[in-house]
Amino acid sequence: MRHLIDPMDISMTELKDLLDLAEEIIKKKEDFNQVCKGKILGTLFYEPSTRTRLSFEAAMLRLGGSVIGFSDAGVSSAIKGESIPDTIRTVSSYVDIIAMRHPKEGAPKLASYYSFVPIINAGDGGHYHPTQTLTDILTIRLKKGQLSNLTIGLCGDLKFGRTVHSLIKSMSSYGNKFILISPQELQIPQYIKMELFNKNSSFMEVESLEDVIDKLDILYMTRVQRERFFNEEDYIRLKDSYILDKEKLKLARKDLCILHPLPRVNEISYEVDDDPRACYFEQVKYGMYIRMALILRLLGVM
Ligand code: NCD
Fold it and tell me: Out of 3, 39, 62, 101, which one is annotated catalytic?
């Protein structure tokens, strides 16, 4: 039985296979609409979500399967004090595969020790978010036609942003350059820097987006993660560190690809949405297709 907890749980060969399958699903949707008939996905979301949960659910429904779950820990027995192992032993007796989001780093890994079915980490605290990374990588491949030799700028809250941590971990295997743009207090954690060192990836840390925007193939904007701050004053001081607007985009390349895992708060002005370089709403759509591919492979139905 396979789980997806850490972005590195998927090898480069498996990743290529998943991306190919997602592209095939995009082309021939109707061929896949019954393949998970009789299968059930459980969505256990102990933290808020719009895209991740609904794209998982839409993915399973589009494969012909069904979905049960909760989107708020407050309506589950967690509120009565039930432990993750007990909840998982229960839910995995009912369903065939589980997508789980939790505010505590490592919770999906713990779940995987007790589950009778595959567990997918749908985001664990400020740690990882591997299916957002699959989404990002599919988008990059479709928009850029390559996964290597790219200069990737990651901008915003690199400290608490789990999507950034996962994306760096995966994309550093492909020989890309990283420009890490953040205020000093929101720089990427040491364990992610070690990933970059270990893979001999070239990277630099800067504070100004304007100084580097002209060098980028990909600009990955992120929200400042309010819920992970220890005090509100720090959040208020840092929340508007970066705002991508039309003026700044004048400095960027014509073929820049702007990504964002969403939700957006202030970091991309609405005026940017009409720019052909804004790819974040397409990215949302690809998230559903790559999750369809992932469900199929983890269930071993195709
Ligand atoms: C991200 C997350 O939950 O980490 N959202 C998502 O899943 N698309 C990003 C965020 O919340 O800022």
Answer: 101
Whether 186 maps to a domain, the answer reads yes
Give yes or no for residue 245 having a pLDDT over 90: yes
Q: What is the pLDDT of residues 65-104, one digit of tens each?
A: 999 999 999 888 998 999 999 999 999 999 999 999 999 9
Same domain, 223 and 93: no
pLDDT of residue 75: 87
Q: What is the pLDDT of residue 214?
A: 98
Please give the number of the atom of ligand 1 that sits closest to the Cα of 225. 12
Cα 56–Cα 170–Cα 288 angle in degrees, nearest 5 = 20
The shares of helix, strand and coil residues in the chain, as percent rounded to the nearest 5, are 45, 15, 35
Q: At what angle do helices 162-171 and 190-198 cross, to 10 degrees?
A: 10
User: Domain limits at 147?
Assistant: 130-283
Q: State the CATH number of the domain containing residue 181.
A: 3.40.50.1370
Cα(143) to centroid of ligand 1, in Å?
A: 21
Q: Which residues line ligand 1 (CB under 6 A)?
A: 51-52, 123, 129, 132, 162-163, 223, 261-263
> Looking at the DSSP assignment, which residues form a beta bridge with residue 276?
none
51 belongs to the catalytic site = yes
Quick one: 39 and 118 in the same domain?
Answer: yes
Q: Atom 7 (ligand 1): residue with closest C-alpha?
A: 52
Give yes or no: 29 in active site: no
